[in-house]
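User: Structure tokens for this complex, please. No commentary.
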Amino acid sequence: QQPVQSPQAVILREGEDAVINCSSSKALYSVHWYRQKHGEAPVFLMILLKGGEQKGHEKISASFNEKKQQSSLYLTASQLSYSGTYFCGTPAAGNQFYFGTGTSLTVIP
Amino acid sequence: GAGVSQSPRYKVAKRGQDVALRCDPISGHVSLFWYQQALGQGPEFLTYFQNEAQLDKSGLPSDRFFAERPEGSVSTLKIQRTQQEDSAVYLCASSLGSGGNEQFFGPGTRLTVL
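Assistant:
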């Protein structure tokens, strides 16, 4: 049930771009993205809803392909503050919520 | 404008002891989740409350785990007869509406069972 993310880890230089992918074996009705810095709690980035509606708080974009049961997070012109572990997540049957396997992103000067 | 708070932040227990972890969600938030996060892993769903009703407890790993939210605000996660495999960070998150909305996380309680 847990979504699978790729890559597992990526190292970028400041200003470079990255794409993080999230794939599920189950139908996705919405996808959440969170970032967690070491020793801290996850922080919400955005929600993508079925039908294409997107909600977010930061200048980070994402796509959601319901047919392929995939979502991708796009980080452009990365900053040092983007470092952390990124998790996708999705509501599941009942009232469960499953986080993905995580992608560790490190931005270096 | 307080966020989600959890206490204690750190808890060391001897194997076999009972522990109680507290979560104070954002006022007015209907939904409350508990997650368990092992080192280097993502948060794993434990249980979900909508107001005072525990609508899903399918993620609780054993009957030693028990959660309650009696008045629809503060929640307590209790672990009886702790085992070493219970060592993890326990995260609480609340959201304004249903479980499909943005979740606000507390800082977590790091439980170490010796």
